[in-house]
Amino acid sequence: MLSEVLLVAGAGMLSAALRSFRHPALFRAGTFGFVLTSFLAGWLVGGSAWTGGLFASTWFLLPWLEILTRARKLRLPLDRQLESCAPPPRAAFPAFPELSEEMESGGFEHVEDASWHHEDTRQFYRLFWSADRTTAGAICLVEQSEFVFYYIALRSRAADGRLLITWNYPFSYGLQQMPNTILNRATGEKSILEMIRLHRAFLEREAGAGLRPMEESSLRAEIQDDLRGQLDHNLACGILKKAGESTICYTVRGMFFLWFQFLRDFVRFS
Description:
Helix 1 runs antiparallel to helix 2 (24-46), helix 2 packs across helix 3 (49-61) and helix 4 runs antiparallel to helix 8. The longest helix is centred in the first third of the chain and has 23 residues, at 24-46. The two termini are 31 Å apart. It is built from eight helices and ten strands. A seven-stranded mixed sheet has the order 2-3-4-5-6-7-8, with helices on both faces. It has a three-stranded antiparallel sheet with strand order 1-10-9. It has helices at 2-19, 24-46, 49-61, 63-69, 96-105, 192-206, 216-237, 252-269, and strands spanning 76-77, 83-84, 108-118, 121-130, 135-144, 147-157, 163-167, 181-185, 240-242, 247-250. The chain folds into two domains: 2-61, no CATH class; 79-248, no CATH class.
């Protein structure tokens, strides 16, 4: 019995050690090592592979707790009006000044600050555009209750109408993208200057017919229209449904979509 306990403890310690390495293969091995450790613990407690499988499955079923208690009750506005606003205080977004300076050092000009909010959810955007007016940049801060994160997005419109986006959104997105949107995910810890180089290479591959120039007066409106278009697309796909005149919520299909997105993150971040 003692040897079995030591085996489980050893597997857990080895998994934790593997996750301390920055190499993706070793880090991923450590993550799946935790799943194996849970399986061994279940086998030790219940004496069967069925119990081990039940323990291991908690890694994949635990997100349903968040989905059923939070995402199921989430209500968000269908129309997200972006309004001019003051930037967030440094205490709320410590990296914001440095990120803005780096965006400007990459050849982008600050256009305006805008946000939308609904109850305890708020999204802030500092909008930029490139010198040739073909690419818009955004520093985006997302606040949902106590859950706060930021990401960088670079977006261009191809001559054929496709929306080309390079971003470092840290999770699998909770909605389906519109059919005319092509995402270029910047993986790893990349600076804004590195993301700008990635986006330029992305445009060379995807926008052979050229890019549509942007106008300062329409930049906020264009982003707002794309937000509404994405919601309409997800309503049509059955990911979302209306929860009143002006609010939306996730359907059962949408909750399963969120779960599959978690599984993608589990593999990607492991």
